[in-house]
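Continuing the batch. This is chain 6 of the set; chains 1 through 5 are on the previous pages. Same settings as before, nothing changed between runs. Recording input and output for traceability.
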Amino acid sequence: MDTPKNLLPKLPKPAVRKTRTAPTEKSLQRMDAFVVFFDHVTTLAKSKLPGCATLVALLERQGHGQVATTALPGKNATLVVACRIDRNASQFDTLERCRAAATAATAGKPKRVGLIALGQSDNEARVLEAAVYATTLAPFQLPKFSGKRIPPAVFADLTLYTQSRPDTHKVIATARGNCLARWLTAMPPSHLDGHGYRAIAEHLSKQNGWRYRFHSASMLKRRGAGAFTAVAQGNEDDSAGIVHIRRAARSKANKMSVALVGKGIIFDTGGTNLKPFDGMLNMHVDMGGSAVAMGALLTLSELNANMSIDVWLGITENRTGPRAYKSQDVVTSLSGTTIQTIHTDAEGRMVLADTLTLASREKPSLILDFATLTGACVNAVTPRYAGVFTNRASLHALLIEHGVAIGERVWPFPIGGEFRKLLNSKTADIMQCAPGGGGDHILAATFLNEFVTPTIPWVHMDLSAVEHKGGLGAVATDITGYGVAYTTELLLAHASTIAKAKA
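Output for chain 6:
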């Protein structure tokens, strides 16, 4: 069995130096790579930075392209990368451009990288924060298992030439949370099984001073958590269960408490209603919601956020077999609500139902849950957005605007009301899902809403963007870690607003 040490990566933590002194040819010769962000080619030309004349010529030959590279003459042959970012570029577009520049700058595994933003005036700090984020993420390698030992990634030390004050501490902490989420999501299920995931959670808890507790499937069955154990009963052992991690606020006077709930289906076959091959191939990423919760917890802890955070991870596989649950079973959830099962591949909402009940019983100020829940949401918003759902419709505008500002974009959908009627059951209190028709992402969130205490503000994120071929935003890998940055900044900036929102 793998140990937590073998299952966890070395997370990036570059040293950052900020200087108001303009870069010189001598200072650049000491670097392995230097990235210049500019708003217009004329701005780059006027800067008279070493190598800029070559870069301007390259960009003009490309028809004013976005990224160009050259090497400075000299022993070190410093790589210089020029990247155009318009002053009015959205945060998402800024992150995409920074990813392209960071990918070029870090391809040779540099140890020292310089960054500067020209012609950005009041926008300089935002551009440099995006650049630091992308440059920290770029060298990080996802898990790879082979006979040949792969050396760990070399993380760059960064020098920022700036007159502003970019918050690099928050940016790097967010990048570390994103890398943890991506690593966990990418782990093969033979290594990140139920035992391995629990071991990782316990190890990280000891490292960071969090309190760890595990509710095993057998314990949950005795307590009446029939929704969770319906899915877990298909496992060959008792490795499934709900992990509870608590991180206390730095001040006892602060009463803000947040629950982060994550779907942790470490492999999803579809159960008795078996998925086809192309639908099952990448189902090790079906625990991506739980990975986002863990990544956000790490980031918020490193930023010493002054709030109590409870993380709840519903960890199990969804298996076939003689003990696996099936259509038309009726189970009783932890809340006492009876559920008529319709489709065994709608297992995520079953696992989350009891996990949300546990989270609600602690009476947090607000609950956020994360899940790779429905293909319907991918169809609705594509893998470039995530769907959000809430029992506080007044939050829709805030959730959209926040996503635009962070560069992890979301789109809200309605729940409850007329949609709840579609889940009416003749044999139980509620159907798990509707047997036909569209809008399953809306019906799934409507189902989950039944297991959240109505007095607690709740936001559900259906993580359509957990995977995007070629990367997304600042992230260059197909697995994106989407949601860590969104959640971190949402809680730091808007937790009290969400907690006070009226139903």
